[in-house]
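Here is one chain, start to finish.
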Amino acid sequence: MKDELINRQVLVIHRAIAEKMLKAHQAGDDSLRQKVLETISTRYDLGKMRYGEYLTWQSVLELLDSPEDFVKGIMEDSPQMNKYRRRTPFVGILTEDERQRVLTQDALGSIDDVAILF
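Its structure:
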């Protein structure tokens, strides 16, 4: 039960991250993508991320030009992606206020009701 709750919270946070990244990307702002790429590269170089996880996140980021596929990639429902999301390279994409709002909204409603403010 505890793992399921954690996975649900992590999934909701990643949905909000995906939406924020897509919005920035579509506006021509590539800084969030670059931030994630730096995190991935640093973790891999330091031995904190295995090659399979590195390739997975690289591949997901390449889908930013295809919003539906990007969301599907980041939200994939599999044990492996659940594991990867728990060690997310998307640190710092959401502000603390955005993260708290998403978690609170999930407790009260559905993720479709969440508005991400910039």
